[in-house]
Amino acid sequence: MEIITHVPTYSKREKLKGNENSTAEEEAGCVIIIQKADPLVNLHSEKAILIGIEIPATYDRDSHLGFRKISLTESMQELERLADTAGAEVAGQIKQKRVNPSQERNLEEALGIKVVDRTELILDIFAQHARSREGKLQVELAQSNFLLTRLTGHGILMSRLGGGIATRGPGETKLEYDRRRIRERIAGLKKEIEKVRKERSLRREKRRRSHLPIAALVGYTNSGKSTLLNSLTKANVLTEDKLFATLDPTIRRVYLPAEKIILLTDTVGFIQKLPHQLIAAFRATLEEITEADLLLHVVDASHPYFEDQIAAVYTVLEELKCVAKPMITIFNKIDKLGKKIPEKLLKKYHPGVAVSALYDQNLEKLRGTLVTFLSQPPAQLASNLS
After folding, report:
1. Secondary structure of 222-281 in the HEC alphabet?
2. What is the pLDDT of residues 75-128, one digit of tens each?
3. What is the 3-state secondary structure (H, E, C) of 69-102?
4. What is the pLDDT of residue 164?
5. What is the residue-averaged pLDDT of the chain?
6. Calpha distance 72→54 (Å, rounded)
7. CA 143 to CA 149: how far, in whole Å?
8. For FRET with 300, which of 10, 74, 187, 343 sits at 20 to 30 Å CA-CA?
9. pTM (predicted TM-score)
10. What is the pLDDT of residue 40?
11. pLDDT at residue 232, as a whole number
């Protein structure tokens, strides 16, 4: 049995009450209790109870869209999708006021089970979906960085007493030993990832020599980026109705009218409050976004909170320092709406195009918008698409 908990956090990096040594970023809190189930009875290997943590004045901030209070219901819905993607069957939901790291440890000791928070849940999903060597290295780096911040021990009670060369006082504590081992592994992973980054840089340089413009698909997870890539390029990239189904970048050529060609890159999806460990670890992969000439922001127009998802994507793009890049907003999944996207919305996110990647609706209009992009001088491009 496991407990997966999401710790409440705050935008101004306030101290968590009851744990003066810990700080965290703004997030809404939730907990999952997972119990092993019989795999012969159910396809899921674990059952989960989601526990939402009510936090006063929790806001999602974005410089483009302002402030909006995050509802507990919305956080719970997304957590349920995360749990389902990780392989858990949600059995019920509970609400409470707060769970801090010290309470998590108390739960572990009292119940004899592991406590895992929302960040670890996302990391677990990434670990399941990582296929390439690059993806696996980056996930392990993110997990190691996270583990380093969560190590706890009991000081001298866990000391490995001894003497001899390189022994400090009573000996190195178990906690210090674990931290040293993790730091050594992190250093090794960073070296391997740096090699991957250089290899990617060389491949990008070769693509640059082809003088073909590069567009990167960005967007909230499960917005339909891979489906759009398949529709535009006739590729056969894996598409699933799950969060973070695609981790490894895929690059394909898109043949457009007027004999224009563009290289299209599919990248990892974003999520509200994407753990900073993942952003740091996936720098090599996310460089495909920072090096792109154009961003195609894919939005799930059928989602009730799609503008909040847009804000979450902008937040990550700001962290990557590429939110000012030329961008076309693609409102996807219009087949699920039953109505047209309002013109006011398309103007708000100009240039905007409404499509259905699954059923190839309005893709010709999108191709035409891309041709317009390719036909403009670079100096004029930024002002026209800003």
Report:
1. CCCHHHHHHHHHCCCCCCCCCCCCCCCCEEEEEEEHHHEEEEEEECCCECCCCCHHHHHH
2. 778 888 888 888 888 777 766 655 666 777 777 787 776 667 788 888 888 888
3. ECCHHHHHHHHHHHHHHHCEEEEEEEEECCCCHH
4. 45
5. 75
6. 7
7. 10
8. 10
9. 0.72
10. 41
11. 94
Look-up of token digits 């090599």: 284
Higher pLDDT, residue 380 or 109 = 109
**Cβ atoms within 10 A of the Cβ of 221, count?**
26
